[in-house]
Amino acid sequence: MGIVVTAQALLFDMDGTLIDSTAAVERTWRRFAARHGLDAAAILASAHGQRTADTVAAHAPRGTDLDTETAWLVAQDVADTRGTVALPGAAELLAALPPDRWALVTSAGRELAERRMAAAGLPLPEVVVTADDVRHGKPHPEGYHTAARRLGVDPRATIVFEDAELGLLAGRAAGGYTVVVGHHGGEAAEGRPRITDYLGANCSDTGDGLRLTLPARAGATV
Question: Could you list the pLDDT tens digit for every one of the 222 residues in the chain?
């Protein structure tokens, strides 16, 4: 028997949650590290789930023009989507959702989100909240609050799918029911339902909301 959860809307992170863009992400940050003589492993360890501008600010050498460097990185990302694929079952789940009952909430910018979702063969929902739309990146809940408001639902009545610590913290701070996608083992993932893909997931519109069933392998209920 799976885990059954009801909600008014589903909110999805993008990278690592709906799509696997690991290869492309690592190529870009390795280029950045080589460009400045930095430790690529250290950058990659902190970059996941964070806006590009925030990662640049944390790692760029003193005196770097942060806006220029961020723009260079975004251009690199937009130009390189090779190897970007959808997580198994993601396309089928999204196709089953009412279009006004799900949103994308990503730390990527709008152009990059469009490119990566298209490369993975996934549709963009009516509501897309990107790094371009918020003042505060994850773990701040602004992105998830914004998505819920645009969908016309209470953020406490949403299910948030995330794969990284910062995103899980943002979803929790927004009041959403967080589901871990993948193998992240940070504190925010402790005790949460977990999936590695969307195979076997099912969502139906009950008229009063959405009824989501996650496969039994999803992990602990809370």
Answer: 578 999 999 999 999 999 999 899 889 889 989 999 998 989 988 877 778 888 899 999 998 999 999 999 889 889 999 999 999 999 999 999 999 999 999 999 999 999 999 999 999 999 999 999 999 999 999 999 999 999 999 999 999 999 999 999 999 999 999 999 999 989 999 999 999 999 999 999 998 999 999 986 555 444
Q: Would residue 89 be called left, alpha or beta, if left means φ above 0 and alpha means ψ between -120 and 50 degrees? A: left
Task: Catalogue the active-site residues.
Answer: 13, 15
Distance between CA atoms of residues 65 and 193, nearest Å: 41
CA dist 82 and 85 (Å) reads 9
pTM: 0.88
Give me 183's structure tokens: 């193998």
- Specify the pairing of strand 210-214 against strand 202-205: antiparallel
CB within 8 Å of 27: residues ≥ 6 apart: 80
